[in-house]
Amino acid sequence: MTTLRQELERRTRDYEHWMKRRHYGPDGPNNRRLWVLACMDERLPVDEALGIHVDSPAGGGDAHCFRNAGGIVTDDAIRSAMLTCNFFGTKEIVIVQHTQCGMLSAHARALEQALRDRGVDIDHLTLDPTLPELRLEPGAFAKWIGMMDDVDQTLMRTVEVFRNHPLIPDDVTVSGWIWEVENRRLRAPRTDDARKACADVTSEQFGVTEPQPPRWR
Ligand SMILES: [Zn+2]
User: Fold this and answer.
1) Which of 16, 83, 95, 125 could, after both became Cys, cross-link 176 (CB 3.0–4.6 A)?
2) Strands across the sheet with 34-39, in order?
3) Cα(39) to centroid of ligand 1, in Å?
4) Taking the domains of the chain in order of start, what are their residue ranges?
5) What pTM value is reported for the model?
């Protein structure tokens, strides 16, 4: 029979190894060789939705997780996916977006105007002061915000972007899933409007009547 002291010694040894996993090169990826892209919304519990343990230290570490508004493609999402898939042993990408997303709830032009009203010169912005080479053409700001017309369509297009991106190796598995905030369950994206209407809140229900700038249409 092992003593508690022996168990604790083993656990601390395991944790030392876990903590130093980046020292082991290709032998030190995250547990599931997985990169997760998810919306930042607090109603989307990534661990519960996917049945994994992203964050907790010892015993966790199932995935690298990237969250942004919408769980959409951005240059930094591509940068992070590129690093984990090419250099940290990651073989799978899972993208999670969700119903009732705030990215459905306003028109990008209204957000743009609100910033203009606050005196922001959105046509001549430095997005990242450490990388002034990264520029938006004048007029592209509303598109950059990435508001959605339809979360299922956005998710399917997001999956396609990662599948076809030259910085993501061809052997990486990419899938996309919708978290239903109303029902606390995960489902595949749908193209059937009648079935989608059972749970989804549309941008129209948020009062958005015009199509968004044509990033996701
Ligand atoms: Zn969201």
Assistant:
1) 95
2) 64-68, 34-39, 92-98, 173-180, 185-187
3) 5
4) 25-107+147-217, 110-146
5) 0.89
Q: How far apart are CA 31 and CA 96, in angstroms?
A: 19
- For ligand 1, the distance from its centroid to the CA atom of residue 11, given in whole angstroms, is 37
- Structure tokens given for 94: 């899972």
| pLDDT single digits (tens) 26-63 | 668 898 999 999 999 999 999 999 999 987 656 678 99
72 CA from centroid of ligand 1 (Å): 9
| Topology of the domain covering 25-107+147-217 | Beta-carbonic Anhydrase; Chain A (3.40.1050)
| CA 1 to ligand 1 centroid distance, Å | 50
**Pairwise CA distance, residues 67 & 131, whole Å:** 21
**CA separation, residue 97 to residues 13, 14, 73, 135, 162 (Å):** 37, 34, 12, 27, 15
Strand 34-39 with 92-98, pairing: parallel
